[in-house]
Amino acid sequence: MFSTVVLKKFEKIKTPFYYYDLSLLKKTLHVLTSSAGKFGFIVHYALKANANKKILHEIKNAGIGADCVSGNEIKEALASGFKPGSVAFAGVGKTDEEIIYALNKNIFCFNCESQQEIEVINALAGKTGRTARVALRINPDINPNTHHYITTGLEENKFGINKGDLENVLKLLQKSKNIKLTGIHYHIGSQITDLSSFKSLCIKSNEIQHWLNKRNVFIEHINVGGGLGVDYHHPEKNMIPDFESYFKMFHDFLELQKNQKLHFELGRSVAAQCGALVSRALFIKKGVQTNFLILDAGMTELIRPALYQAYHKIENISAEVLRKSESKTNKGKTLKSGDENQIKYDVVGPICESSDCFGKGIMLPETKRGDLIAIRTAGAYGEVMSSTYNLRKKVKAYFGK
Ligand SMILES: *Cc1c(COP(=O)(O)O)cnc(C)c1O
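A: This is the predicted complex of the input protein with pyridoxal-5'-phosphate.
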């Protein structure tokens, strides 16, 4: 991802910044769309993972749909060229304004999360003279074995309609003249690496479909959400997620009825690996038990470590790429990474919060003030979650072709 040419360019750019490798994004999209195409599956991109305009442009060009969780995301998707008929709209708390906007745009589907939401959408659809296409977001009560802050499909979570309430929901739908039930929807969590969680989802979904069919309810589509994880520990080795095995799991275990379509909403697995947060070492401070490596990037640029105790690979790219290539040209011998002294650092940001820490006890080549430090796999839930806390400015994004 970081050639010496790329790094020479970085030397002239004010840090911190996001760097996106567009050729990796394109390759990822190619593998994604060809794997999904093999099984006839339909993919929507979850804009909340990364809504950078250039990134959206590439994703739209790959021909996939959009998955939005706010009215502004729908606006951004449409402005980027996604077709209204490809937009799914999810979220536990849709406002009237957002619902009316989505109705007027005639989007593909509202993923509904409660009885009251169904009542409100029905009323607003009546007022605007439209029929709302609705999928029920069902909480399948599956534990995806990921961090509890990004688990969404357990009964204790705020998301979705519990199975026990389905009987009442069907009664409500019969009275709701401005709603057409077109699908069922699930989303059990994010950064799921154990594919067997998706197998459990398939089995639950089959049961729910049978239960609906027995009550004479037939649906056009099933939407199994997103959640496929990426390899935060080995971004170079696993640059592109194993979409093929993921889709095959659904192909093998989810029963689709005649003409029924299967939809996916993937965010992280599309955008994560192509992005890095690039910063500079400001200071190296010797602590009592550890060395602190203080960066000019912090939780304001990438909040995942502070928010979810997430791991991101941290690299001293000045030491690992630039100095290595210089010593190669100067002395005619190759330094392998690891030849430089490895030192243990707690890598922290400048924000006035103790949780502003990117990693503890990280082994890095001896790091000097001014070295470029890359925080990898930051293309999803990075830039979009940045804030201006401490009155910091939002950082810029640069793109590699
Ligand atoms: C966040 C979200 C997604 C995308 O999840 P990833 O883990 O990024 O793939 C899909 N669907 C819904 C409803 C979501 O909230």
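DSSP finds twelve helices and 17 strands in the chain. The longest strand covers residues 275-286.
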